[in-house]
């Protein structure tokens, strides 16, 4: 696999050093202080027991370093927002940020952790962009196979943060219905796009071009943040949307172009799900190739025999068959 570390590609890839952990006040812009302090107080128990269960609504665990590591993960997102915004002031085509962080964040709800997620990294970064940089209108695109319910909940009544999620219909945690569009002044600033199992590459391309792009153009964001989950890949064991490495290259290329057109190139990706290490690493690497304007290597990784016919293609074939019979 091609190396993307800064020592191999110093003129194209910049690695932020000495990331500062997020402050508790940063986390409190999204999460309740009672949750934050409760988690911090649980660390001695985790030290004694090795691992503790910290969530009653999903499989989330903690070790003695979880609190510290979660602050670092959120701090990495904040630092990348700072770096991208600073670069955009002197360069109309600034670098795109990618937070390669763990734990992930998009399931963490304001009052607690959920689904492997401790703090809402992308939600914390969105509030930071608004509060520190004056980037009032934030577009969040979440293409993880699971609905980003925590991010959705955090901004459900906020008209200035437009949350768009594509996810597999009926998958964990069971939220993200199309009728969930926000509430109060935030009504219309949430767009959930549940996709049927097997939807695949062509459906995602159609959704992006025909729904996400025009919505983003109308919203006119000041920055785009992306919950980049790679668990919709056909090889991932947790779901069945059967995206390919090429799907992620397409998304990265198109989101990069969208950010260039709408918000001076300001864009930061946040790593979310991904549970097959091979497909995860290949897809993240191809995402970087898209950022760098290099050709995709997806054809070397994606075996067409792993896919089955997508629902949209079956419908299109059925329509063509009906038309053929009609004309006969």
TrEMBL record:
Gene3D superfamilies: Histone deacetylase domain
Coiled coil ranges: none
Cofactor: Zn(2+)
One Pfam entry name: Hist_deacetyl
GO CC annotations, alphabetized: cytoplasm; histone deacetylase complex
Gene Ontology biological-process entries: epigenetic regulation of gene expression
GO-annotated molecular function: histone deacetylase activity
Histone deacetylase domain span: 17-289
InterPro entries: HDACs (IPR000286), His_deacetylse_dom (IPR023801), His_deacetylse_dom_sf (IPR037138), Ureohydrolase_dom_sf (IPR023696)
Domain of life from the UniProt record: Eukaryota
Protein name: Histone deacetylase domain-containing protein
Taxonomic lineage from the root: Eukaryota, Viridiplantae, Streptophyta, Embryophyta, Tracheophyta
């Amino acid at each position: 696999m091609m190396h993307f570390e800064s020592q191999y590609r110093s003129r194209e890839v910049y690695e932020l050093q000495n990331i500062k952990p997020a402050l508790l006040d940063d986390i409190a812009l999204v999460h309740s202080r009672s949750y934050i302090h409760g988690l911090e107080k649980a660390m001695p128990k985790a030290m004694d027991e090795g691992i503790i269960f910290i969530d009653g609504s999903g499989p989330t665990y903690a070790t003695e370093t979880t609190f510290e590591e979660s602050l670092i993960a959120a701090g990495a997102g904040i630092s990348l927002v700072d770096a991208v915004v600073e670069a955009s002031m002197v360069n109309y085509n600034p670098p795109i940020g990618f937070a390669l962080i763990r734990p992930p964040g998009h399931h963490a709800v304001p009052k607690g952790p959920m689904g492997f997620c401790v703090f809402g990294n992308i939600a914390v970064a969105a509030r930071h962009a608004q509060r520190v940089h004056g980037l009032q209108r934030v577009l969040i695109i979440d293409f993880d196979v699971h609905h980003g319910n925590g991010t959705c909940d955090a901004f459900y009544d906020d008209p200035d943060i437009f949350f768009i999620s594509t996810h597999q219909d009926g998958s964990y945690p069971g939220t993200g219905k199309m009728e969930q569009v926000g509430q109060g002044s935030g009504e219309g600033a949430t767009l959930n796009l549940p996709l049927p199992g097997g939807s695949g590459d062509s459906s995602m391309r159609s959704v992006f071009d025909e729904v996400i792009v025009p919505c983003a153009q109308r919203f006119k964001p000041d920055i785009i943040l992306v919950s980049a989950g790679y668990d919709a890949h056909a090889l991932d064991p947790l779901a069945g949307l059967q995206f390919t490495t090429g799907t992620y290259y397409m998304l990265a290329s198109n989101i990069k172009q969208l950010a260039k057109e709408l918000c001076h190139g300001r864009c930061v990706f946040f790593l979310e799900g991904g549970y097959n290490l091979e497909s995860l690493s290949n897809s993240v690497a191809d995402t970087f190739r898209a950022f760098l304007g290099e050709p995709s290597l997806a054809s070397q990784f994606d075996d067409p025999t792993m896919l089955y016919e997508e629902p949209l293609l079956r419908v299109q074939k059925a329509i063509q068959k009906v038309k053929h019979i009609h004309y006969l």
